[in-house]
């Protein structure tokens, strides 16, 4: 049972605090400023529910939970199979949240194309498709017993790279969505650039940038026991060669 590397404790703590702040900010924006999400439709109440659910699902369900899944291997004690089980389940929840979050944007009277013409929407579709492919690849590569150990070892670096890339792309997509929404509110609905809502949205964007940086840094930080094994191996090699 491996313990948490002491150098990672501040990063893990900062990631949790940042995640809580981001969750609080997106919930505050969604439920305290409902008028900003009112759609122009015949059934504004139903449209409001879908409009509010979209940022909540994509930020909390997709970004925060997938970030937590990335950090599982850094703090969860137990066997490797346990860590992989929790990682897979959390990523599955994040994928379901992302798919449902995009589905909410299909619920418009103007049809599907009406909500998928911006850079934010294109990036969102690409991100969820990559995430789904990553989840399937991870399932088959690391859970299918027929795969050879050497095959899994070759796939692992690509699995890690694609996972971190997709996570960063999800955060970038959220940032473009916040910019798009705030620009619309300030130009079409006369929301002041210095009002409380603008402050909340901008703070949410900064919080997401901070959270993603901490999560990625924690994920790529070397493990203590890996470094120790490398040093022991190098010292033994020198002793044998001398």
Question: Outline of this structure?
Answer:
The chain has 242 residues and is mainly α. Helix content is 78%, strand content 0%. α1 runs antiparallel to α2.
What is the strand and helix layout of this fold?
Elements lengths: L8 H24 L11 H32 L4 H25 L14 H25 L5 H40 L7 H25 L3 H18 L1
Helix pairs in contact: 1-2, 1-6, 2-3, 2-5, 2-6, 3-4, 4-5, 5-6
Distance between the termini: 35 Å
The gross shape turns out to be globular
Number of strands: 0
Biggest sheet architecture: none
Question: What is the N-to-C order of secondary-structure elements (H for helix, E for strand)?
Answer: HHHHHHH
Integer average pLDDT = 83
Unreliable parts = 225-234
